[in-house]
Write a structure and sequence with these properties.
OB fold (Dihydrolipoamide Acetyltransferase, E2P), five-stranded mixed barrel, 2 domains
Length: 215
């Protein structure tokens, strides 16, 4: 299904970028209105490009782009930063949590299918990480809702505490969860089951998972 042609300005999360030719980037980006798209950002690797730092992974931006009907790639023209991931970059654990979210979203989200709830999930988890919230709570909340919103929620046998946490996460916003001492072992059986579910669904192993589990 091709996106409608014409000039667009859309609220967007940048997922991945790939070098292309001498100065360009291929960009995978998740728009609020049109879902996941791919585009080319010309001269984006040049100093003083129209994109500035807006193409870093998990940058929340207003992306200006042009989509020609039946074209595989949109033409990106500029972007305006809404929220930067830079202030999380100096914290390895939080930066790695963003990498995990990016990888999961890149593989789970189908092209050209808007998903407002998934978009709001990403906004909420990034805001929670920026506010100093637990990395492990953020990773679990994101994983739980990513699986649910992808329509592949399995029946899982987990510890009673993990089941209780899952129930609360499905009922409350991330910022309103009951205060608890979050560690790597908190609901680890649930986290790993959710990761396995995502990996089986997309038929590939996530490269960020071993790094997370090594924290």
């Amino acid at each position: 299904m091709a996106a409608h042609s014409g000039a667009k300005l859309g609220e967007t999360f940048v997922l991945r970028t790939y070098p292309y030719k001498e100065a360009d980037l291929i960009v995978s980006f998740f728009t609020r209105d049109e879902g996941k798209l791919r585009g080319i950002a010309r001269r984006a690797r040049k100093p003083k490009s129209a994109f500035g730092a807006g193409l870093e992974r998990m940058s929340h931006v207003r992306m200006a782009y042009f989509q020609r009907e039946n074209a595989d790639l949109a033409n990106l023209t500029s972007c305006e930063m809404i929220s930067s991931p830079f202030d999380l970059g100096s914290d390895y654990d939080r930066s790695l949590a963003l990498d995990f979210m990016t990888e999961a979203a890149e593989h789970l989200l189908p092209a050209h299918e808007p998903n407002e709830k998934f978009f709001r999930l990403m906004i909420a988890v990034v805001a929670y990480l920026k506010s100093g919230g637990s990395v492990w709570a953020a990773v679990l909340y994101f994983s739980l809702w990513a699986v649910r919103l992808s329509g592949v929620f399995p029946e899982m046998r987990v510890r009673a505490e993990s089941a209780e946490i899952a129930h609360e996460m499905l009922e409350k916003p991330l910022s309103a969860l009951t205060a608890r001492e979050w560690t790597k072992t908190t609901a680890s059986d649930l986290r790993r089951a959710l990761v396995r579910t995502m990996e089986q669904h997309v038929e590939r192993k996530f490269l960020t998972v071993p790094l997370l589990e090594a924290l």
